[in-house]
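Predict the 3D structure for this chain.
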Amino acid sequence: MVHKFILLSAFYLFLQQLQIDMLYPQNIEQKIGFSEIRHAILQKCMCEIGKEKISALAFSIDSAEINTSLCQIMEMTTILQNEEAFPTPSFATVYDAIARIKPEGTYLLANELHTLRKSLSEIQDIVSFFTKQQEIYPCLFELTEPIEIAKEICRSIDRVIDSNGNLKDNASPQLVEIRNSIAQKRRIVSKIMSQKLAIARQEGWIDQDSEMSIRDGRLVLPLNSTFKRKIQGIVHDESSTGKTSFVEPVEAFETNNAISNLEFEERKEIIRILQETTAEIRPFLPDIELAYDFLGTIDAIRAKAKFTNEIEGQKPTISEQPEISLIRARHPLLFLSFKKSHKEVIPLHIALQKPQRIIVISGPNAGGKSVCMKTVLLIQYMFQCGLPIPAESQSKLGIFNNLLIDIGDEQSLENDLSTYSSHLLNMKIFMERANSKTLLAIDEFGTGTEPILGGAIAESVLENLNAKGAFGIITTHYSNLKHCATSLNGLVNGAMLFDMENMRPLYKLRMGSAGNSFAFEIAKSIGLPQHTLENAQKKIKQEHIDFDENLKKLEIEKQYVYKKKEDLRKQEQQLTLVKEEYAQKLKKINEKRQEIIENTEREIHQVLDSANKQIEHTIRTIKEAQAEKETTKQAREELHQFAEKTKQKANKIHSAINLQTSNKQKHSKFEIQVGSYVKMKGQSTSGEVLELQGKQAVVNFGNLKMTVKTDRLEPASKPKIDTKTVVVASSLKNIAEKRKTFSPHLDLRGKRGDEAMYEVKDFVETANMLQFKHLEILHGKGYGILRKLIREYLAVVDFVQSCTDAPVEMGGDGITIVTLK
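Done. Predicted structure below.
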């Protein structure tokens, strides 16, 4: 077993050495922040073995190993949160002493034997817990399978060590005899010393409140130095002032010598007992080492689980292919920092999957580009180290063989490398090592040299990396790289969103669109002179201005579409709730109907039973009264007629019930065909079936075509009215009502740019539909950003004839007057 353990450890170290070649640069953990994660977990370990395992935690490419680690940690998080019965070990071990006692003749001290006994007992408690709960915690139970703790170990220790960690007096017959002799002689010495102390006090050779003292392990009397010769004995010591002499009476001297000899014999016997006990344990050292390794593993998993609970970590879905799909991901260190100050981290949604493997993120400075990159890198690194991630469990991560990053300044005076030269060297290494299982990250790609040349080189490198099938995250301000991401398969743009109205970043990533640096807007908000900005704009090529303007317009359009989609989603949710409500009501109606039928049948049976009882009672009365035959016959006839009428009523009720059931069965057996007229269950409007698509049917309800599941339809008669007329009339009525309530004045003050543009679009389109010609949009003056966005949008709307500032007395350039065609 021990050979297997050594081989596994050696193989693990070999794999760890291989993994170093997969990561670049060597200080990657410091650059992405994983060293801080490791330190935080180390602080939660209770024993040195656990700390060693956390220190050895390494980037892995084995999906089975990663999955096992994640399962173990998630099981432990459940235990920490819910299991009060889980043992709480002290994690105290004698791991360092194990190597010391392997040679013959060596031994564990009494306190070490006590610690060994306690730790083995704790390990056995943990093993027993997981054995009982193996169905709930299967991954942690697997760790217990090789653990065997021989009962002989605990028996050997319990025979000689008491519960306080001291060697028992009866550990051996010799020890019993020696300790009894020592105790007897100490009593004799104590008696002699007490007598001498009493005499010294009586004669005034010693202070009345003085007591016996100990010097060199022997009892002595603290005599005044003037009288030290009054008691015959040996002076062992004097006080610092010389006024007190510590004297051992001659009568106790011989006995004390005997005690010293006995104590020497006691020490020899103790060592012999400890050696003997250690020799009994020595054959089980391999099992003890495995047990301690298990305890260290549990300590390490427990520390990881505690950290996981702090960052609200989850186990993601593991993909067999390299990919990244993160839902509501949070940077763990930022999350912990914000948690202390009761702030919330804005979650990240990002997907790097074929065919969009490389994302080019752009946006304003301090907008969150680098944080976004480091969040993905750190989460991927944590995942491949077998740690749960701070993201939703629906997130999906694959395995990457290589992780290559270029973040920060790598200027090297020793190697005579400038910042840009070091970046180029990194790009050379990236292109040599990159493949389809590589995840790379490049921050501020292309910077550090002349922009046009740097941008061209960066674009060429990007094309090379993309051709190799690599995955990556790149941040940049260069327009040519944004164009490249738009035109090349395998690349996708990403934009860090920015609030143009309040001039602040939103720290949200939107995939599929390029970001704008908003350099002029930020410069204007800071207070840079207007003439300086205008001069700067003249120096920029027109195509660059057009590109940025198009980015802004595209962003506005996306915001508008997103809002519309959100509105539709909310309406669909409301519709679903209404459908569910009606379904519940219909269910209650059917249940009530069935209840009425059952109650009616019960009443019928009660009436019939009552009638039969009445008949029998009447017959019995007649017989008892011995009435005439004619009278009896007449009574029987009347009762028979009563019973027949009651049966006829019951049959009518039964027929009605059967008719309803028959109609229901007909409806359930109804086969929908093209041309059939149907209606939705619970609705009155009927329509014609135009097409069948498996379990769905396309139905024309008036001039509205709907695709409906067939199990939601029931037969209906052909409509007698023109539904088209009704729909048109209804629509005209709605438009007329909207026209009464519509206001041609829109107030956007205090609104953010994206929110304001959504309202402008909706306002203008509604006005056009309602045939309003003149509109007013109040946006305020401020920095003029919102006014500019509105004018740019209105300029491309087909049905807008003109847009101008309001007269000065009406608000000037704080209001836009819109005229529709």
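The chain has a mean pLDDT of 82.
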